[in-house]
Amino acid sequence: MCELSHTIIEEREESMISIRSDSKPTFRIAHFLKPSLTLTQDPDLLLPPLPTPTPTKPTIRDVKNLPLNVLYRGRRNPQRNWKEWVYSMQSKHQSTWKKAGIYDAIWSSTYQVLRHNELVLGIADRWCSETNSFIFPWAEATITLEDMMVLGGFSVLGSSVKKPIKTKDMLEIEDSLIRIHRRLSPARHYVWMEFFMGSGHKLEHEAFLSLWLSRYVFPTSLYDNVGKHLFPIAICLARGTRMALAPAVLATIYRDLRLLKEKIDAIRVRTIKYKGDSFALDLWAPFQLVQLWIWERFPRLRPIQNIIKRGEPRVARWHKVKRGNIEKARLVMDSARDSFLWRPYAAVLTNWLSPKFYRNKEEWVLVGPNMDKEIESFALCMRACELVGLECIEQYLPHRVAMQFGMDQDIPICVPRFNLSHQTAWRNYCRPISDQKVYIPHRLFESDVTTRYMNWWKKSMLPQTYAVKGSTKQPRLQTTMPESSKRRKDAGDVVKERNFKHPDMFDKYRSARFRRVSDGKPSSGTETTLPDSSKRHKEAGDVVKERNFKHPEMFDKNRSARFRRVSDGKPRSGTETTLPENSKRHNEAGDVVKERNFKHLEKFEKKSTRFIRVSEGRPSSGAQSQYLASLNARGRIVREEKLPVLSKVVGGSQRATEVANDRGTKFSVKSVVTIKVHDEEPRSHSIASMSKQDLEVRISKLEKELAELKEEYNNRLGKRLKVQSSPVP
């Protein structure tokens, strides 16, 4: 740890290398923020550790899936009629606002930034509380005072927000506001606005600024109430006194990022032991600035922005823009080495008036009483100090992220703390600048890092990289199923995991995709022994081949019977199967059924007869079918004939015919009906044993009967159509 220096910038020659690519180093004059490592110091320093690597045990890895409910109470949308009140106050106090450095901040409160909490949670997981910065695999970055100036419109210069009121007039104004506050108690935001807005009250300006501070700058636990503790700040601002609001707001953001990060880490550890719990966290900082910081610097995460009108603040760029559907935002941030924008505000933006410290050439500016306020503000943004807030004190370390200011980066060193009290911290913040000149870089200058910084960073990240990789990579192993499993039939069986990562997935309600092997070697295919409880497992030792079914519960009588019955452990050709014994169609023991178009056994009912009865274990030729057992007993042969059903509705029901009626009515074919023709001659022997001549005689008889039936059917149908179509007398 070094002694704190009052100087800000150091110029020296160094071996520099680009952080975006593995280019060759170049030796040039570089500019660094102090304090940094000198040539005589030992660079045996380490960064604070990265966020805790993902544990090897199963847990929630993605932050958005954590059982955490974060309430961003500091993100307040503009009130109804708030913009009208701003317009009314601007016409009277515009010059006072600019003198106090709050003009852009007040107008920024009239715009609404739609929430994208997943982005905030994702980047909060990268927060390091020891350095108040985000630790990415490729570099270090953070939210700075420059972001508070540009995005929030707050002032870096001015008095402390803890400054007491001294003048008698200001004390009297505070007492008057307190009396009105008591009379309106509870002084809700809308009640306060209704009382003062357009009333012409002599304290309307102070009341307006009190509401602005309570709702949009320093929200407190008294939710939706005007805070009396903010009256002194509002009175100073109403008198044109510049207040350092930027460090106070940034301190609350640092504090809440630390609380959020600690909560995330605690829930990760607790979730492993206490699954099902949920947690809540209230945050009071204006986290819309964190979201804007992400959109400005990560182009892949930003939505389509608006076009700024002349005179509007930069936040108008993001007014009510619809957030993009970004998945795995954490992965985008971790791989943004080449796309991260170190100086997004230095680029030219149409109709936006950029600050004076974004210049088209590098320049050394003299430090003195006549120094431009914007240049002085930029100098304070680059100096390590303490940030004084209303209820907290946080350390500010811009020398760790020098590239965000257009400076080169060297190994940062630790800075002592001055946070014993608000007075001590404020003296550290407002100490004078000892530099004779301040270096202003070119707005388009691309900063580099020293070669020793690159080596030091890689060395610091190496243990964390191995820790993360070691926690996520898990080899696939062969496992013996637990003895309690019903599918483990023989001792010593080896089970090979396929699609399952956890052994507890091998239960009776899970997939049975494992191989039964002998002598520790898996056999070919995916052959498996069915459970003994299966009704289709008829013979011991039968081998079943799984087809389309992943779960054993599908092997029941109401499911498909797509398995092979084999003898001597070898499956036969085709898809022959033994039907269940309780099947009504299983007439003879040993009959073999060939499945055609039906996947489920319930399809083998009276509605369908598409199976072949064979003898001696071999299917017969042709497409002949054996009908129901009742017809078989009578010895009648059934042949199905399909006729078209017409769309003409006759007599209140749908009838069918092949020809049009006498009037030439057109019919469209909608479906098919089946006519069953029976042979009256008893069957003395099987069809397979009949001679060719006998078959031809029988077929000719059947065709003759079928023709007669068709003719009779058409005659009857024609008569009905004629009766229906005849006019009524």
From TrEMBL:
Top-level division of the source organism's lineage: Eukaryota
What segments bear the compositional bias annotation Polar residues?
A: 471-483, 521-532
**Single Gene Ontology BP term?**
meristem maintenance
Q: Which keywords does the record carry?
A: Coiled coil
Q: Where is the Aminotransferase-like plant mobile domain?
A: 101-458
Q: Where is this region: Disordered?
A: 468-499, 511-588
Q: A Pfam family name for this chain?
A: PMD
Stretches with biased composition (Basic and acidic residues): 490-499, 539-573
Coiled-coil regions listed in the entry:
692-719
Give the protein's recorded name.
Aminotransferase-like plant mobile domain-containing protein
Organism annotation: Castanea mollissima
